[in-house]
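Write out the 3D structure for:
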Amino acid sequence: MEKIDTRLHFHDYGNMEKQTAINALSALAQETRLDIFRRLVPLGETGLPAGMLGGQLGIPNATLSFHLQQMRHAGLVTCRRKGTQIIYAAHYTTMNELIGYLTENCCQGEPCLTCLPKNDH
């Protein structure tokens, strides 16, 4: 299960371009898609079947399909077929690159601890 490793990725945004970051942020700037992404992130590469995801979030299938397509286009989720099910998972590489891109200039580009995400919950 791939998770964000702030030590490795927080200041390494790789080759993310501005337009890629804009696409990802635009996709997440919608309530339903943000809920979907936040539901998938803790599940790791295991992901969740589309039907189960829609059921847990109370999203009709057609609406869910539309939002997942937008998220796939932005590179935020991956999908794979398992029998008759389509399993969706958060795409951690894009997530890590986006975090790195957004924090590239934090502390004048030097790694620091003051800007690392805190888990207060």
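The first helix runs from residue 6 to 9.
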